[in-house]
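G., the chain you wanted modeled:
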Amino acid sequence: MAVSRRAILKGLVGASAALLGGTGGYGFLYARHQLEVTRAAVPVMGLPPALSGLRIGLITDVHRSLWVSEADVTRAVAMLMGEAPDVIVLGGDYVTWGDRDYVGEAAEALAPLSAPFGVFGILGNHDDDHDMPAALAARGVQMLKDARTTVTVKGEAMDLIGVRYWTKRGSDIASIVRGATGFPVLLAHDPRRLVEAAALKIPLVLSGHTHGGQVVLPGIGALAKQKFPVVAGTARRAQTAIFVSRGVGTVYVPVRINCPPEVAVLTLIAGVPSA
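Predicted structure as tokens:
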């Protein structure tokens, strides 16, 4: 019996909807909880020998909320602590939409984090400018709100320069960098700050914000790649390296597809100049 084109199209639409529904259900029930530890060597130009091999733990985009439980965050903390990094960076977005109901819970879940050279945090676009940083500071996190601090490793000074999500102009970032004498590392929630960092010749940027795309479709990839210079992992612009973490939580929809959550442990190694 002949099958009409309309029937074929209806069948394809129905099959596609079923596939997407099944994938979305898996992304909600399982994939968003399949936390990984990403271990990456990051080549950095001009890296002082004393900093070669330094291991930086990066945990970002926790988004503690109705959909991201205390158990999710606690497991991320335990997994990162199990790696024993030398220094830890918190990359922002500790709650979602600045929800004050979860500020204390997010900070408390992150409180067990510790490292020999300290734990440092910056603010993302979902964080308020007072309550969240105060809650983290009360639990031992040194918050860098458009500020820098110096960490000394094996006699070598490393300047951690932390900018808020809302600090975007190159001149504003330059004013924070000005006067730094140690090896500079920019901590910026938004990976688009790679542009300003490269212009200022800052050799390393650590970011989050993208969630790695959160939903990565076969044949299409992450939709976020159209908006950000780097969606996930390691990249370089001119002589500036960047690592962008996929983060722990979710936002907008509590689903991850082909994009598991992560905590990252980054080992700094000397970079080779571009040809």
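The domain at 34-270 is CATH 3.60.21.10 (Purple Acid Phosphatase; chain A, domain 2).

Shout if anything looks off.
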